[in-house]
Amino acid sequence: xxxxLKQLPADPILGLSTAFKQDTNPKKVDLGxxxxxxxxxxxxxxxxxxxxxxxxxxxxxxxxxxTPQGVPGYISGMLELLLGKGHKTLIExxxxxVQAPGGCGALRILSELLNRCNGELTxxxxxxxxxxxxxxxxSAGLKIETYPYFDKDQAxxxxxxxxxxxxxxxxxxxxxxHGCCHNPTGADLxxxxxxxxxxxxxxxxxxxFLDIAYQGFGDGIEDDVYGLRLLADNLPELIVAASCSxxxxxxxxxxxxxxxxxxxxxxxxxxxxxxxxxxRGIYSMPxxxxxxxxxxxxxxxxxxxxWLGEVSDMRERMQTLRRLLVSKxxxxxxxxxxxxxxxxxxxxxxxxxxxxxxxxxxxxxxxxFVDSSRVNIAGISTSNVDYIADALTAxx
Length: 396
Ligand SMILES: Cc1ncc(COP(=O)(O)O)c(C=O)c1O
Prior knowledge:
GO terms for molecular function: transaminase activity. By secondary structure, this protein is an alpha/beta fold.
């Protein structure tokens, strides 16, 4: 029976990693996979996380299941990080939330929740969006459409086209927005643009679905949730999928949060039971470990301050690398203006070059990134930036 299923092609990013590993060129560079790397190309355990692990090891007394909702201090800590301490939706007890296995787990169970609300609704995602949004949302049986977002030729957001599209979205449809550090383009909405999105959500009565996987990697922990808080302040409902994979460096621990701002406490109570029953039907109980670490960090002034410093270091390193790459490209006389990289945020940027040029970077220089031209800025270092800039200048 199992032989009816055919082998699937390799996932483009994972396939790229395999090709990178097999490449024997000592100068090879991996700008593909979306994990933060330091100057030495390592993805280290954050010092705040290492300290939290010691505390957890000394204090954890059981490996019995945690509650279906997750670690309580993790949930309250994350809601404060996202919405702000004492946010009115928290005081009014309007927010349902569960700990989820990664941002992906949160995206999936929230999509299932949307399907339970209305199986006919459409989820609008940006063109382009993170590739995994499509299977995560689509597997829940929801229809997906795209709204225009990024213009590769202009290397900027197509905001007028985005607005024109969202002006036609049906009442009750869902619009997925990247909270910050848009993946794959690195192009984020300005504050004014977020206000326009709010106005559209109020006019059209669509439900914004915020995916926030890089809080702290753009402009800062507070600045990066400007849009999220604006919508939470002013709309009756909002859904949020958050991830601790990048900003806590907890990738393999699978720690995320699914949060739903509802109209009142009674709805919150109902939604809380619904989302827990969805999780029960997929993976039953959330994993504890990553959430327990984030709980320890967010609920200790000392560890939280240390973690905030570590997030700032990662953010500033990526901002410095952006500036360095752009100035090297200028110095080397690249025939394209890459200044846009400096205004983009977070871990990714689109280089806005053609798939053929991406192939050339891979074949001729062993510099690996996906065909869309998305690069992981954290894969650049002071020791490879000249090599990357030389290669780019040559293939243009
Ligand atoms: C836009 C976006 N959303 C969500 C995620 C979820 O990540 P994870 O499931 O590893 O927490 C990612 C990770 O790459 C992402 O880029």
